[in-house]
Automatic annotation (TrEMBL):
This is Calcium-binding protein. Keywords: Secreted. The lineage of its organism: Bacteria, Pseudomonadati, Pseudomonadota, Alphaproteobacteria, Rhodobacterales. PROSITE patterns: HEMOLYSIN_CALCIUM (PS00330). GO terms for molecular function: calcium ion binding. It is found in: Secreted. Gene3D superfamilies: Haem-binding HasA (3.30.1500.10), Serralysin-like metalloprotease, C-terminal (2.150.10.10). It comes from the Bacteria. GO terms for cellular component: extracellular region.
Amino acid sequence: MQTTVTLLAATGIDLDAYFANFDANFSLSGFGAFSNMSTFSGDYMGTSGDAEALAFLVDGDLGYQFSNHHVDGTIDTISFGTDGDAVLNTETGLFDLSLGSTDFTIDFTPDLATADGDDVHGLVYDLMSDGTAPEGNTSTLVSLLDLTGVDLVGSAGNDRFNGTSADDHMTGGWGRDVFYGGQGADVLVGNIGNDRLFGGAGDDKLYGGRGNDLLRGGAGDDILAGGKGADTFVFRGSDLGVDRINDFTVGLDFIRLSASDFSGFEDLSISEQGGNAYIDLGDGDGILLAGVDADSLSAGDFQFV
Ligand SMILES: [Ca+2]
Ligand SMILES: [Ca+2]
């Protein structure tokens, strides 16, 4: 299954903070609304009372049984935002459900389906009400994202995303994005803006894009590319693996090392390896600078912090 999270809020989204705020403040108004209110089926929207308050919209084909308060069916997309509205369509006899403002959407391909063993009930019922105060929580949704990994599409603003333990793929839009891959083989693309990318554990691929970016692959053998701008590549801690920087520009980009591990440029072991510069960090760890002449590197290309 592919799970795509598309961030839409103009100012950017910190998804973990958003979920925490939803869990703390969402309180279902009434029973919410189904697109077919005579059979309690179709799409479903939960609102939190007044117009500016939190709301979520489930686009799919759900069914609600009052006898046991059980939800089943399929989910295509869940949208989070504010200003939910249900308007009776006199032609179809169904309610048109919409959010006045959408902060982000989560698309499932293929659709989540009760028939496929997916926890459609848990997901929707937790969002509506888990039966205990405070009503509404994102725990089932978050654990589902962690199961599949996430394909994140950033907004025009400053986004922040902590990746799941699975393989994630994050692409920032404009803005100063901060992405953490976490575990798994992640692909992080900063795109436009001065971004900060942290691969975490696993063999990750980090691409800064335009702007002055900071890239830190973390553990594992990572592949890094800063893109345009003056980029800083950070190598700190143990178990760094053998990383490769594909576009290190001498005199423009920086390699940042720990001052507690290296006293200065003279302390580094730099050699030529098949037309590339190789910096030996000890313990089998190292940095390969693709296409860089080892002799061209000087103290000005390094930071010891
Ligand atoms: Ca991950
Ligand atoms: Ca890594």
